Give the backbone structure.
Amino acid sequence: MGKTTRPPRASSLKREIESAAASAEIARLKEQLRASESAKAKLAATLDRHLHTAKARPIPPAKPSRRGKEDIVRVIIPDTHGAKVDKGALAACLGDVKALDPDEIILLGDHVDCGGFLAQHHTLGYVAESAYTYEADIAAANAFLDALQAAAPRARIDYIEGNHERRIETWALTQTLRNSKDAEYLRRAFAPEFLLRLRERGIPYYRQGEFYDELPIPGTIRKGKCYFFHGSSTAKQATTVTLNSFAGNVVFGHTHREQSSSARPVHAGQIKAWNPGCLCELQPLWQHTNPTSWTHGFAVQLAAKSGEFLHLNIPIISGRSLLGSLAGKFQ
Ligand SMILES: [Fe+2]
């Protein structure tokens, strides 16, 4: 009798089936992995090609956009102080003015120093402050205006009186024992407004003792959505103090320190006060007991017909403007 083959046991059959299924699953996974690696390699190659192409073709520099017909460039120049001007800082400012070719210029006041006409807080006879003459002071201010008008021949220039120009008016009143007609006669003979030939230059002058643009603060003018005046606060945070009193955008000089403050009142999205600094000597001798924190600078506004504007305080550090080559892009 021949040997008979015993049928496989059920458990053994099950193991074989499971083993075959596992092998098929492993093969499927291997195939999936190969496909995935192939896709990854393709993606890497594409990325590499794009990066290489991007390197080969650098993005061209954007062309500077031309100024819209109704937009204007406004330059704001703070305290230059006549004979006490810082020549390097002024030259840097005038270089930028020439490049900007502004439509408007606002002079924030104190463009003569009048050191011989002492302010109340100065010591009578303190020689260092009156080493230059009033004639030299006026000559320096005239030279500044000549250079400014040559650098910006198209610009309308507005001149806001500062407390230093006003010294001549108070001097005239004192000399004439407050006789207003005699005081006015002296003022017309000696005040910077006349010695700087502002009428002949076509430059309007705004006095601290008069109101303009129907505004309740004397010596203040408005351009679009911004007020301008010489400044009165000497507080450490003068921009905050001034912003509180104006409750609107305002630019002023007077403190000789670059500064700004902003607020978000209920009536407006945001308002701001700016002080661009000054363009005079940074450490006058009358401040010998008080090293100053004065800084050089001026300001530029890009203003739209709507009155809205972008304000930029431009610092001048060691006689060098940080606006530099950017100036040409505004034209
Ligand atoms: Fe000043």
User: Anything to note?
Assistant: The CA atoms of residues 89 and 319 lie 5 Å apart.
